[in-house]
């Protein structure tokens, strides 16, 4: 019962296949939309997700449609761009075709692989049940459910020890997502839920942020990391640095500190919690391994594909890899190549370069090396709290606090897709700011995961 | 491991327990919020759902939070109202206590049961897998997924017969929900998705509305039913009246017409479809049976509890049943009692009467008989199409078409809870009206149900 859908170009136009409609894939398609090529974009969801605001869906601040734009709508006026919903299960570079889960085969002349990243539990995949990560809308709904249900369970719980465990929230990983989640969780406990419970004080909830390294926000300069930690603590987050998670189960986790290079003795302790969020590890999409096996491309430790300077694969100039799946280097003129960070501006720029290089190849011109234009780095922490590190022609501009928060806010609204979303998100934020309320506190499936304990 | 949480009133205030936070339960709690009683409201979800607009969530026109208000927020400023999330598994009238699924026991002095209704497949529960109904947010998400995924599957399908089945949508039941669903589905196919597909024409999709009786919208006067049918057909819906469903499976359904009172021969035929929506049968919440067994109360065929004139149960003056779970009669002064319809204004009015009667009993005054004030009936069909039947002091006022649609629209926005929701819903509708776009076209779980075929 295998299906076959050849991508046919009636006019004999070159066929470009893009896997993934995240920032990289979307930007590549946009760059190609007016070119004389037929583009097919395949993704396993029907929407482009604005991942930088996914934590807002997980913390009930935004409704899912505000940050998810249906891919079809984005290309409705572009007859040369075809959108398909399907999961890629195989890539066959020799045959120049890609297979979908339902058996559909798609052939291509040029392939852009932008399949992104997923969580990594560092080989402890059994932790996924107890500490969900935050990459997809389903993840966000699950975390939203666990957070809100923990307070509900605490209100019904008579045993003070179990009640305290219900009111303990643990975020593992001090990167941007972990910092945002921890900061927002304290805001929910201290402000949003205030006055809504009769038997518990939601404000007594503990929010812990566990980070294995000596500082949060490692991509930031040290001074901003320190500021971020202070701001987190001001919001009520307990930040535990140099703390490694050694076990997670249905009722909590075990953490180890010390025992490292400084010769301090190891100290292992347990935290009882029913709501643990994983924001620690990122691994390349499993498609990376598949592609590496088929092309002989090298991968790095998180499974990303090492690409050539122009983002293509050695021996396969018709295949490019962009975004979080690519281990790419930035080639600034006259400088040593530097690694490209796994952030959305980099994914977008790679998507544009890969698309441009396809057009160059079709025109018989040499391809360009990828050069990442780094405009800076920003992370929000919570209400009125953020850190910003901008590159300017006059040197770095670094600031934190309320101004940084406003900068973060408008930057994110600006990059959201669609006027409606920008408007509604701004409105929801304004209303949340004044009222401390969070609008999307809806849980459709109350039932807990059977594995959850 | 049984839990016990007695509802205690520190000041010895009477304890009122309300089961269900739909229209009836919510209105009862509101009526009691300033009275000298302690109210506990228990529900299996964390939100009050504005069910009249649930079909908009199912058809991707609205995000879930726009029609679901967190119950806690509604009573945050009312320290005497406690909200609990839990599923009632037993009611024990003799002990005046209620048991939740987790073992929690709640005792009461006064009980209002407002547990509502669920789908009925008339004894064919196996149909639920193939033809989901529309009562909860989960139901709406599942229908949204099936509708949007049918078009996606059709775009990937090479076989024309299977493609036609993917593009056939069947709604079973010609009540308000069925009519709304069918009308909106044609709008999605003809307008919303226009220009977004490359291999199929979404406008070629067939939408069938199957109704067992000789007319749609049976609660309406016959002339308005006929107008509704005409408007549906103008939108592109195939309306099949006097058609009984005899079978539903993973690939479609069987329908029988004729063979009835008029002596026409029975004609049975099959419709191939992968997206069937059930809007035909309603049954009382299973709690009804439980309560009837415990109190000896009578139930009617759909399982509703027959209540006394003041909505209480014979022999149990401290128990009232309101909303869709109650088979109540309206006692207009000087008239014969008439059955109360299963609509939200009736549920609200019953909630108010039940609450008032508790206050009367506490004050030692006689209870009131319930009197349903019928302000009319309205149903929307689709863009610019609705039918309205209003009772006025000068006789019935009936109209249809665009004016009726505007009336329907503003009536629904008016009754939505919360300024934010009213504003956003109006904005989403205005934008949908002008652009034909539907904003909430997001599917979080693409995977089809394993039972779906």
UniProtKB/TrEMBL annotation, chains A, B:
Keywords for the protein's UniProt record, in alphabetical order: FAD, Flavoprotein, Membrane, NAD, Oxidoreductase, Transit peptide, Transmembrane, Transmembrane helix
Membrane spanning residue stretches: 403-419
Swiss-Prot/TrEMBL catalytic activity: a quinone + NADH + H(+) = a quinol + NAD(+)
Keyword match Disulfide bond: no
Pfam family, one: Pyr_redox_2
Superkingdom of the source species: Bacteria
InterPro entries linked to this entry: FAD/NAD-bd_sf, FAD/NAD-binding_dom, NDH-2, NDH2-like_C
Domain (FAD/NAD(P)-binding): residue spans on this chain: 15-338
Chain ranges of the External alternative NADH-ubiquinone oxidoreductase-like C-terminal domain: 376-431
Keyword Zinc: no
Catalytic activity, EC: 1.6.5.9
Similarity remark: Belongs to the NADH dehydrogenase family.
Protein's recorded name: NADH:ubiquinone reductase (non-electrogenic)
């Amino acid at each position: 019962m295998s299906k076959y859908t050849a991508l046919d170009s009636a006019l004999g136009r070159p066929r470009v296949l893009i896997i993934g409609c995240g920032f990289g894939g979307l930007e590549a398609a946009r760059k190609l939309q007016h070119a004389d090529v037929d583009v097919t974009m395949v993704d396993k969801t029907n929407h482009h997700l604005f991942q930088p605001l996914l934590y807002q869906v997980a913390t009930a601040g935004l409704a899912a449609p505000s940050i998810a734009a249906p891919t079809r709508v984005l290309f409705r006026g572009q007859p040369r761009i075809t959108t398909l919903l399907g999961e890629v299960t195989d890539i066959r570079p020799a045959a120049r075709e890609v297979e979908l889960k339902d058996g559909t085969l798609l052939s291509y002349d040029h392939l852009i692989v932008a399949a992104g990243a997923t969580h990594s539990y560092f080989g402890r995949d059994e932790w996924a049940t107890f500490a969900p990560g935050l990459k997809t809308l389903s993840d966000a709904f699950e975390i939203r459910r666990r957070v809100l249900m923990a307070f509900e369970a605490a209100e019904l719980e008579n045993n003070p020890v179990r009640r305290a465990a219900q009111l303990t929230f643990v975020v593992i990983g001090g990167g941007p997502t972990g910092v945002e989640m921890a900061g927002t969780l304290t805001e929910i406990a201290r402000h949003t839920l205030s006055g809504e419970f009769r038997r518990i004080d939601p404000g007594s909830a503990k929010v812990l942020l566990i980070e294995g390294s000596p500082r949060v926000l490692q991509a930031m300069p040290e001074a901003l990391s320190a500021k971020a930690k202070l701001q987190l603590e001001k919001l009520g987050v307990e930040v535990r640095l140099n703390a490694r998670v050694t076990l997670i189960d249905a009722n909590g986790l075990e953490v180890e500190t010390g025992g490292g290079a400084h010769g301090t003795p190891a100290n292992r302790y347990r935290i009882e919690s029913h709501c643990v969020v994983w924001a620690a590890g990122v691994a390349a999409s499993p498609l990376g391994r598949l592609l590496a096996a088929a092309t002989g491309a090298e991968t790095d430790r998180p499974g990303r594909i090492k690409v050539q300077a122009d983002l293509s694969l050695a021996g396969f100039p018709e295949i490019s890899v962009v975004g979080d799946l690519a281990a790419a280097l930035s080639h600034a003129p006259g400088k040593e190549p530097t690694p490209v960070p796994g952030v959305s501006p980099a994914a977008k720029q790679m998507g544009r370069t890969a698309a441009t290089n396809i057009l160059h190849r079709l025109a018989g011109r040499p391809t360009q090396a990828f050069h990442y234009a780094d405009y800076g780095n920003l992370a929000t922490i919570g209400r009125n709290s953020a850190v910003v590190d901008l590159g300017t022609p006059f040197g770095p501009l670094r600031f934190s606090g309320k101004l940084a928060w406003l900068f973060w806010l408008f930057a994110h609204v600006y990059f959201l897709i669609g006027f409606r979303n920008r408007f509604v998100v701004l409105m929801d934020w304004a209303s949340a700011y004044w009222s401390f309320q969070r609008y999307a506190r809806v849980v459709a499936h109350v039932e807990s995961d059977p594995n959850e304990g």
